[in-house]
């Protein structure tokens, strides 16, 4: 997806949260242990507003993100869905006005600017919408092109060398013969993760791997984000399942 589609999806995905109207804000979110549905909504809305401030102010350094991390609120009232959509619209409009290629602060050592924020919050919103559907007990669906871009971004982010600086233990993933393949069964798309070198190399591609997981695209997306297990649930795993399990203990974000 291009920059315009990505920042547009921030609002589009958030508007789908209106399907939660009437859901209990106190409902636990299984994929975010310790969170209620109200906590989740406040986290998403705070994140949108925090990123919008970064874009609007053309921040070149980190801005305090208390509004992302402060989750407590009044869950005796209905979910603040209008407030949620307002924050998404604020971020989408800030990105649209700034345009692609604008240098602002991001957590990446390689920068990324407004392009990073458009893509990151499009898929942050998608995955947290999946969290919300799990809490509310309703089906989760997402457009194919959005899911593909979400997996592509996941692969790119997880292979960043800067992870080794923040978490040296992640180097334990590297070793001879350690390769993983993921193939969608409902669209023509596959990804390959190579852990045999000095860095993680991952992205689109096919190849013989030590372990392979095959599933419909949406199921792969949710499993990669650890929103559902790889074992069962329509996901077929063959090969070195111990490698897959070990890899899963060293990944995760969003």
UniProtKB/TrEMBL annotation:
<dbReference type="InterPro" id="IPR017517">
    <property type="entry name" value="Maleyloyr_isom"/>
</dbReference>
<dbReference type="InterPro" id="IPR034660">
    <property type="entry name" value="DinB/YfiT-like"/>
</dbReference>
<dbReference type="Pfam" id="PF11716">
    <property type="entry name" value="MDMPI_N"/>
</dbReference>
<protein>
    <submittedName>
        <fullName>Uncharacterized protein (TIGR03083 family)</fullName>
    </submittedName>
</protein>
<dbReference type="InterPro" id="IPR024344">
    <property type="entry name" value="MDMPI_metal-binding"/>
</dbReference>
<dbReference type="GO" id="GO:0046872">
    <property type="term" value="F:metal ion binding"/>
</dbReference>
<dbReference type="InterPro" id="IPR010872">
    <property type="entry name" value="MDMPI_C-term_domain"/>
</dbReference>
<dbReference type="Pfam" id="PF07398">
    <property type="entry name" value="MDMPI_C"/>
</dbReference>
<dbReference type="GO" id="GO:0005886">
    <property type="term" value="C:plasma membrane"/>
</dbReference>
<feature type="domain" description="Mycothiol-dependent maleylpyruvate isomerase metal-binding">
    <location>
        <begin position="16"/>
        <end position="132"/>
    </location>
</feature>
<feature type="domain" description="MDMPI C-terminal">
    <location>
        <begin position="145"/>
        <end position="245"/>
    </location>
</feature>
């Amino acid at each position: 997806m291009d920059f315009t589609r990505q920042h547009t999806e921030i609002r589009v995905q958030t508007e789908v949260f209106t399907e939660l109207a009437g859901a209990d804000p106190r409902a636990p979110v299984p994929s975010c242990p310790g969170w209620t549905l109200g906590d989740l909504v406040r986290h998403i809305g705070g994140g949108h507003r925090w990123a919008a401030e970064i874009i609007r102010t053309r921040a070149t350094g980190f801005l305090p993100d208390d509004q992302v991390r402060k989750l407590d609120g009044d869950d005796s009232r209905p979910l603040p869905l209008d407030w949620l959509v307002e924050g998404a619209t604020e971020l989408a409009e800030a990105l649209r006005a700034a345009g692609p290629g604008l240098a602002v602060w991001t957590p990446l050592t390689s920068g990324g600017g407004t392009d990073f924020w458009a893509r990151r919050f499009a898929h942050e919103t998608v995955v947290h919408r999946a969290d919300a559907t799990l809490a509310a007990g309703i089906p989760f669906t997402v457009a194919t092109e959005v899911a593909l871009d979400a997996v592509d971004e996941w692969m790119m982010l997880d292979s960043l060398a800067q992870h080794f600086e923040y978490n040296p233990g992640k180097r334990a993933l590297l070793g001879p013969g350690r390769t993983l393949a993921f193939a969608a069964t409902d669209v023509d798309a596959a990804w390959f993760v190579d852990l045999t070198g000095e860095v993680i190399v991952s992205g689109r591609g096919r190849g013989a791997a030590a372990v392979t997981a095959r599933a419909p695209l949406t199921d792969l997306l949710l499993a990669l984000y650890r929103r559902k297990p790889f074992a069962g649930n329509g996901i077929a795993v063959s090969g070195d399942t111990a490698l897959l399990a070990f890899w899963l203990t060293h990944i995760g974000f969003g």
